[in-house]
Predict the 3D structure of the following.
Amino acid sequence: MAIKIDQIKGNLTVVMYHYVREIKESLYPGIKGLEFEKFKTQLDHLQSKYQIIQAEDVISSCLNGSPIPENSCLLTFDDGYKDHIKFVLPELKSRKIQGTFFPPAKAILDRELLDVNAIHFILERCTDYKLLLKELFDLCISRDIKEELLSEWKVAYGSTGKWDSEPEPALIKRLLQFLLPERIRADITSILFEKYVGQKQRDFADDLYLTTDDLKIMLADGMYIGSHGYKHFWLDKCSVGDQKEEIINSLKFLTQIGASTKDWMMCYPHGAYNNDTVKLLDEYNCGIAFKDSGGETILDIDRRYDLARYDTNDFPQ
Ligand SMILES: [Zn+2]
């Protein structure tokens, strides 16, 4: 009689990074990111406690049940910043470990600033959030957004959260990321960006994001590159058709830079997805997909499109 042994589920620690740079000496010392020195300290810590493994091992463990070492750790870097080739790549190479990178395709190709990044830098330059919120409300009202609606949003969305200790930045982010209609949002963000940051978004984007050539260098250096969507949309707020387009275009992008699309990896922008996303990922032969929260990851084929990550701030720096 065959003895059935439960497959041992692989446990994995996945760490998520965004900006990794010399923040204090930079033009934007208030940006919320990880100071490069602290990144190195964190890598020392992680390497002493965990074995840093490769994306390919994570995919095959999740899909085929191949074993991974105890205390395995995967390092992931979102949003395709220049930081990732300037600071992260040399550090990972010198330690002979791999990073997994999730660049937003359209921002890279068209040198177009993501709204989420425009907002980070507007808030970084702003010294009076209350005044900024008033300016934003005035811009909304002059574009026929009703004052009553703004008041409702203020009550519903103007509360502090994990990332915001004050109510105004939380509300400003939500207004400019999804509450306002897309056209108005882009227009207002552009006005506020030029006022506060003093640059055209396009020039700024050129300095902020990796290029396709940078990504090719990173691939040649053994790094892994996965999909982070095309326009970095909140997929749970998109129609099935728009989600499909996001996936197809992001796969074209991966092919264009020479990244693998076999059992490819997805990282949901903003961690957001729904049942339609999962069906599409399956249809397009996605291997595994990460969200942006949840802590410890269990590599189980049934959870392959719902893999959790930790934030860098969850570990010593
Ligand atoms: Zn992102």
